[in-house]
Amino acid sequence: MTETVKGPASYFPSIEKKYGRPIAEWKGLIRSSPLTKHMELVAWLKAEHGMGHGHANALVAHTLAEDSGR
């Protein structure tokens, strides 16, 4: 039986489909940005890449959580 994906990662299939880039590429863009604060990054994804708030928030939250665990 397949485990259901929960949390920010549950948005990843629709993000890839809607915006045409793999999640790894989005995470790379977030990590290469000079911005560091969550809401600054969300606003940047929305303004520069036309991303919706929920998708941008999920990507930023997941990326920052990964980075804080390293």
UniProtKB/TrEMBL annotation:
This is DUF4287 domain-containing protein. Pfam families: DUF4287. It comes from the Bacteria.
